[in-house]
Amino acid sequence: MASTSITVEETAERGLLLARADDALVLGHRLSEWTGRAPLLEEELALANVALDLIGQARALYQATGLDEDALAYRRDASGFRNALIMELPNGDFAVTMARLFLVSTATDLYWRAAVADELLGPIAARAEKETAYHVRHAAEWLVRLGDGTAESHRRAQDALDLLWPYTGELFEPAPLGPDPAALRPAWEAAVAPVIARATLRRPADGWMQSGGRSGRHTEHLGHMLAEMQVLPRTYPDARW
Amino acid sequence: MTDAAPPPEAPIPLWEVFLRSRNGLAHKHVGSVHAVDATLALQAARDVYTRRGEGLSIWVVPSAAIVASDPADKDTLFEPTGSKIYRHPTFYEVPEDVGHM
Asked: If you average pLDDT over residues A153-171, what whole number do you get?
């Protein structure tokens, strides 16, 4: 049977756009998985809003590659995705979801701010930064309340930070084009530390860091996620709304 | 990770949401949200009630802080005004020069 997968001819520009787009799409899809099962109606809408912001950012970035955005999202195999591994981890509990959104959005917001002057990313970055700044605020407020809440919520929030921390190094790996993620690390540390302190949580120690997503070496979770996300367009390649 | 039974929870406070859609207009009641404190109530109000560009400003007020009239007092409070049509400003001739009022 013919494969429904596409392969992308990668240029440096496309590599940059795909890394950012896949970050947004994969995290956006993860957040959309909360729809129908969030702890509160209010939070359900908040998470759906964030998911839609991210998917909108992904669309703009995919379109900038000059390739078919639907094919990029629905017809690529896991090894073709360039997202950081932290995006594809399962949602876990609410603490993991919020801690990830906080750690990632804080880095992404700094990245978009640096990218406003970038020739390729500039137009997308300006809008994305405003959206991302709100994601940071929302997730930070939750992390503080979970960490400084009950013994149970504190334990879960600390577990979430400990689980996610080894995946944060990849957010700052140097990239050949665009703003240098490595240069954003001090600002990220400075932004993250006071929130973790307000949340009465302990900043995990920097140890060995996970890596591989940017070159297509993913965790098993991405394949499962894509199977669900892509099953319909792959089964009915010409399906229309 | 999500299969542990949630512990019994205290009810989450309710907040009334008021939006001002344009400068010069008054804040208008649009609904309510549940939130554990004022900051999260503002965020919830933003996420629930301003998804389509409805607002420039949000107020949230603890629902418990609102003092409401008793529906049973309806007749006493409001019915007497029904017979006092002279309180409506409809008995004045508006001079043409005034234009639209």
From this structure: 98
Domain for residue B8, yes or no?
A: no
Which residues of chain A neighbour B33 with C-beta distances below 8 Å? 42
Which percentage of chain A shows pLDDT scores above 70? 99
The answer, for B50 touching chain A at a CB cutoff of 8 Å, is no
B33: CATH:
3.10.20.520
**Domain A12-204+214-235 -> CATH class:** mainly alpha
Q: Do B43 and A137 touch (CB under 8 A)?
A: yes
Determine which of A42, A89, A144, A150 to mutate to test the interface with B (most B C-beta atoms within 10 Å): A42
User: Does residue B47 lie within any of the structural domains?
Assistant: yes
Half-sphere exposure of B87 (CA within 13 A, CB side): 5
Contact A181, A173 (CB under 8 A): yes
Residue A228: pLDDT above 80? yes
pLDDT at residue A191 is higher than 80: yes
Q: Do B48 and A96 touch (CB under 8 A)?
A: no
Number of domains in chain B: 1
Burial A51-73 (b: 16+ CB within 10 A, else e): bebbbbbbbbbbebbebebebbb
Task: Say if residue B81's pLDDT is above 50.
Answer: yes
